[in-house]
Amino acid sequence: MRWFVQGKEGARLPWKEWDEAVGDPEDMLASIALGEKAYRACMRAAKLPPRKEAKNTITAFAHILHHMLDEIGEDRMLELRYILQEDWKEASTGLWEPPSEVIWPMGDDIRSELLSLRHGLERVVGPELLRLFWAGMTAAGRSIPVRSTEAGTGVYFPLLMLDKMRAENIPPFLDEEEKEGLTFLRSELTLSDWISTDDLEAALSHQRQFVHRGRLFVDGCMSGGRWYELGDVRDWREKALRSCSLLIAFRIMFLASVTGESGPLRPSYPD
User: Fold this and answer.
1) Rounded to the nearest 5 degrees, what angle is found at the Cα of 221, between the Cα atoms of 218 and 223?
2) Tell me: the pLDDT tens digits for 114-140?
């Protein structure tokens, strides 16, 4: 999957869909086309079939970003540009990484699958859900800080905020299909019936799990201890891959919207 290149035009994807979305950031259809291309590319890299329900999710993303640009204001856009170009190295280190850093096909080694699962949750799911929450609240006319003190705290807070948005009908302009799209995203983020996604992520991050005779024991803070099979872990990983594919699509759409509205982004890297 081709990823961002940097030149005179700043960071850009070498896709015509990127150029069209950046050329007219108010064009929701162009934004949707970009998101769909990114989603399909990620799912192809994961060797998984795309889900038809994802179209509603990507349409919701585009609608949110469309209104976000209307509401953000010059000062907050300047602050956002600083974060995306400079401060990302502190708050969102996976922002400019290619999808290949978190998306690859599933395997049969339980330890490798657990590491891959944790990596995707920490590098994509948490940061992009937080970005989606911020974009949605901004699009709804809510003035929340561009810098979130919750950044880097895992998936608990972002999942909580996604649930809050859906429960409170934020943003209010989404139609029924777009609301179904966010519901689909939330369902993809429910990795297990036995342990919540945030509890699982916390257990993996704090090494509260072990493998014995091909089975996995996870000691969840809220769900308690339980044994799981390789099939369970593969199910978690598949849903995480599908979630990452959707959220990487959102990331690309977000960066295209900011670029189209305010000019090229030129992320800096350490010397």
Assistant:
1) 70
2) 888 888 888 899 899 999 999 999 999
Give dist(CA 26, CA 172) in Å, integer. 19
Q: Which of 37, 42, 39 is nearest to 104 (CA)?
A: 42
Q: Which token pair is 90?
A: 């502190």
Residues near 246 by beta carbon (within 8 Å), at least 6 away in sequence: 39, 54, 57, 58, 185, 188
d(CA 105, CA 72) in angstroms, rounded, equals 38
Please write the tens of the pLDDT for every residue from 42-101: 999 999 999 999 999 999 999 999 999 999 989 999 999 999 998 888 878 888 999 999
- Separation between Cα atoms, residue 85 and residue 92, nearest integer Å: 11
d(CA 21, CA 35): 10
Total Cβ atoms within 10 A of residue 239:
18
Q: What's the CA gap between 123 and 104, in Å, rounded?
A: 14
CA angle 234, 243, 21 (to 5 degrees): 145
Q: What is the pTM of this model?
A: 0.93
Bridge partners of 211, per DSSP, are 216
Give me the sign of the Cα torsion angle 40, 45, 50, 51: negative
Q: What is the pLDDT of residue 152?
A: 56
Instruction: State the Cα torsion 149-152-153-157 to the nearest 10°.
Output: 70
**pLDDT at residue 243 is higher than 90:** yes
For residue 192, give the nearest of 115, 109, 126, 117 by alpha carbon: 117
CA 186 to chain centre: 12
CA distance 233 to 268: 37
* Separation of alpha carbons 40 and 215, rounded Å: 33
